[in-house]
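Subject: for your reference before the review

Hello V.,

The reviewers asked for a structural picture of the protein, and I figured it would be easier to keep everything in one thread rather than splitting it across files. Below is the amino acid sequence we used in the manuscript, unchanged from the supplementary table.
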Amino acid sequence: MTSLTAEQRYTQKLRPLPNGCVEWGASIDKYGNAKFTYTDESGKHRTTSGHKFGWVLTNGPVPDGHKLKNTCGLKSCQNMAHWTLEGDGKGLTLQERYEARFTRLGPDECWPWQEKGRDKDGYGLLAYRENGKAMTVRATRYGWNLLNPHDPLKDGEVVCHTCDNPPCQNPAHWFKGSVADNGADMAAKGRGTGPGRGEDHFRTELTWEDVYEIRRLHATGELSHQGLADRFNVSRRSITHIVNGTRWSKR
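And here is what came back from the structure prediction:
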């Protein structure tokens, strides 16, 4: 029997989903990307990301100075329409690096922060160097000061979200306030009534159905903790708590 080509092996692992994504039916790396191992024409074993293999198969080689960026939020997605070329970041200004790390969607939609760096509250983090010193700031704070040079955030002021989605970079969803203002906004929306458990926790966007699906996917080994975090738009730490049963333990 003739062994399958790398292209045939790759194609076998694709599973179209109703939402237009194409799920990867094999290994996922710790960052949530599809992992594909194959034998090339010379007989050498190679390992690459599934999306890079699929892109080259569909569109040809990735040009020098560029990398692939996911636009649908599912990093293991193999629908090449959900990937785009962008600069690899070398030689970019800080503003360009910031703008390359989120996806602009519709004017009324959230603009998701695509980097894995988040703080404990889910806000995207922007790391950079200033005068040789490593610096880290909330992406929304940098974005606000970039767009409002005459009204920058003062000490004690934060960027609040009308969408209640901390990673969102759409400035139409932002307003400036104090930490107390942010807490009052949560309380006014019924999200600050106490820590609660499961769906009653004021910060959660998950449901019990989501939790069951997370635990099912984890049990099958289909996705890593980071892959699950990317799919369900929560932190990796939250996924760890869910699969270990330290949160969402009782319904």
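For the response letter, the relevant points are probably these. Residues 196-245 form a domain with the Arc Repressor Mutant, subunit A fold (CATH 1.10.10). Strands lie at 14-16, 22-24, 35-39, 45-49, 66-70, 83-87, 125-130, 133-138, 157-161, 174-178.

Happy to draft the paragraph if you're swamped.

O.
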